[in-house]
Amino acid sequence: MGLFGRTGIARxxxxxxxxISLIVGGAAQAQTDPLPSWNDRGAKKAIVDFVQATxxxxxPAFVPAAxxxxxxxxxxxxxxxxxxxxxVIYCLERVPSLVKARPELADVEPIKTVMSGDREAISRLPTxxxxxxxxxxxxxxxxxxFRVEVAKWLDTAHDPRWKRPYTELTYKPMQEVLQYLRAxxxxxxxxxxxxxxxxxxxxxxxxxIPPEQIVGTAGATKYEYGKDGKPVLIKEAKLLLxxxxxxxxxxxxxxxxxxxxxxxxxxxxxxxMLEYAKAGSGARLSMLLLHDDAARxxxxxxxxxxxxxxxxxxxxxxxxxxxxxxxxxxxxxxxxKRVFAFE
Amino acid sequence: MGLFGRTGIARxxxxxxxxISLIVGGAAQAQTDPLPSWNDRGAKKAIVDFVQATxxxxxPAFVPAAxxxxxxxxxxxxxxxxxxxxxVIYCLERVPSLVKARPELADVEPIKTVMSGDREAISRLPTxxxxxxxxxxxxxxxxxxFRVEVAKWLDTAHDPRWKRPYTELTYKPMQEVLQYLRAxxxxxxxxxxxxxxxxxxxxxxxxxIPPEQIVGTAGATKYEYGKDGKPVLIKEAKLLLxxxxxxxxxxxxxxxxxxxxxxxxxxxxxxxMLEYAKAGSGARLSMLLLHDDAARxxxxxxxxxxxxxxxxxxxxxxxxxxxxxxxxxxxxxxxxKRVFAFE
Lengths: 343, 343
Prior knowledge:
2 copies of one chain form a homodimer. Chain A is of the alpha/beta class and 343 residues long. The first copy, chain A, has a domain at 40-83 and 169-335: Rossmann fold. The first copy, chain A, contains 13 helices and 7 strands. A 7-stranded mixed beta sheet of chain A has the order 4-3-2-1-5-6-7, with helices on both faces. In chain A, β6 (285-290), α12 and β7 (328-331) form a beta-alpha-beta unit. In chain A, α3 crosses α6. Chains A and B meet through α9, β3, β4, α10 and α11 of A and α9, β3, β4, α10 and α11 of B.
């Protein structure tokens, strides 16, 4: 019998205190883990260490709140990019309306192939043909008309594998990173090869990121007056910024004007952004998401014996640069407890 | 003798309460006048009414905080633009360093004229020549080198009339508008025909506006690797955005992606931005600053019998559109109690 075991009251008191400690301790732990969907491995530690180093007053790597910028690629980094970019699916599904408005296009390639409904033939369309389809379906209307069209489509379109709206296919662990950074006064930006105007339609709802924090591939607009004399901005088929490869740091400079402290990507198109963030002084975080989880999402890239695809390519060379440059590679399979919020 | 005048104590109490009311009332009034440098006229009232309409919960024109965007032209709207844009002065003063680095330019026009020091001849240089000088002095270096050069110049350069650093020549009443809007959760942007990278160097210090909230005329940059293998962004002589006229709403769409609720300008280059802001739904504020105060600043524009200059032009047509479209014209002479903070 121990020191405090002499009476039933004492025993019950000790038991109660023990229970309270357990409950309170558990709650405190849950509250202080900003990344509950991450396994306790190197990637999670790298994120937490980076945030503590840059935001703790007196830390040698402390950065004033106004300068805390973090940039995220979207497709394949914040949400699913397979089997096809969501925006490409949108453009393909817009083709019937396009032909209705401009019947002369029905017999012109590549519109003819898209209208045939032959999925096999559509998936084989070369990049130049896809670009023609993008130009035809993403330009020629006002920015307001475009916003309405995309919002309407997103309300009804579903991903074929998970049977859910595309905006639900964001990665829960990355959502936690966004929230964790924002809770520490970081401004979070999307820096995407996708169309800036397209992503702006849903990014506030899907990620809590406002339109002015979306940097993406952007076309020119033209200021005109509508029939009612009111000004409109018409989307033109003239490329201003190809926000891939070197275009990512160029776009970051154009639209943000500060070098990010942290950058997140998943493909060769993100390489330069990750280099650019990492090359700054002080504590820096460049992270590369490796899709190695065919069961829960997809597996692609050389590390998994799968061929690189045209889009979202993760080459051996990129993997080697990550190792050499102290970027952190995130393994979807090993680092993430869960992939989606709906799981 | 009045009701409360019967005893000395009562009298003193009343006196004390009266004094407290006066002091508290006075303090409250000072606290609630967000625009102390403005005379109580229509322009001030238009600003206060707009802020109250858009930020008061339950008001039919209430706008959620995230959507509160206000855009300001810089030259001639936030600071002095005469006798020459500050950026043009910078470029002209950079010419000797340019010639030192590239001696072959010394005998080439318009560099030769600038090097002659003949102010009369320099002031007569046509726009195309000025553009050549701008291209030569604003491009060909990294964005970091450029930032350092501009910061160094601003530290020593002085305006010839007021003998003060250019960054002190901001208008105190407009600074109050910026602060008042920000205190009401507006995001304030500069949307300038001037160079985006140039303005970013000092806008945080001069106006409290961070680099990511500067939209301006922008050239392309090119992502390269320096001799040390580190990435650099080189400023190229390729124009991406001419942020004047229709380019202002186009630049706003490109870099902000929302239509501003309020816009401030002073010249024909701002017309489209003022139209664009005003054409939105709900309460809108478009303001045009008229320079009619030769004693305290400058007077130019048709309303004052002065010829329009090449830059910062305020035409009769613009004035007529302002009246027709319910923009508010600010008279520097009549609406502003003071022009500069140092007065």
